[in-house]
Write the structure tokens for this entry.
Amino acid sequence: MGDYLRLLTVDDRDVPLATLQRAVPFGAIWSVDHPGMLGNYLAIGPEAEDVHHVWATIERNPVGPGTLGAEEVADFIDGLEAGGPASSSRWLGDYMESVREIYAIRVYPDAIRGRPEVVEAVYAVRAALRDTVGGIGQWDGHGFTNEDDRLVWINAATRLKGRVDAALLDESNGLWLPFELDLDDPRARAAFLRGERPAAGG
């Protein structure tokens, strides 16, 4: 898990705090006073208001002229040339032109070390956000997912591991072709970056 998990969405409706709180019955989510971001900055931890044991924070950044969110989107679009597949880069570039909100979940590595329940809590909150406003995912140092939450783009220099749900875009009809990608197999990874579905067994 990277230090930041982001959800980029075209839906700018408010997500009720209670919706996120219900997603993590074994932890707490509460609003944090933050200069310039009143009501948009949340903390996740074992107990409400326990600022010394925060597992992660959630920051909601609107995307508009002159905003931090707009700067992030521009950086993401500029970075697409560093990876692939090319079809996903084109799709992501178009999608991000319509993004209106970015939810940035910052995970604190010391808090999650050896604590599977913390990882579970963070992903539960991310799932609750995604269920409410949809969007695509971005993981620092990893890549992007599509609206179905399948991996569709990776940085060519990144060394990812494990098996993941992935998809390739058929630009002739705009449909995603889903499959399982073995990131431990360099041939499968290279094929994916070229925009090719890896052969069965590697």
User: Anything to note?
Assistant: The chain has one domain: 4-154. The longest strand covers residues 163-170. The mean pLDDT is 90.
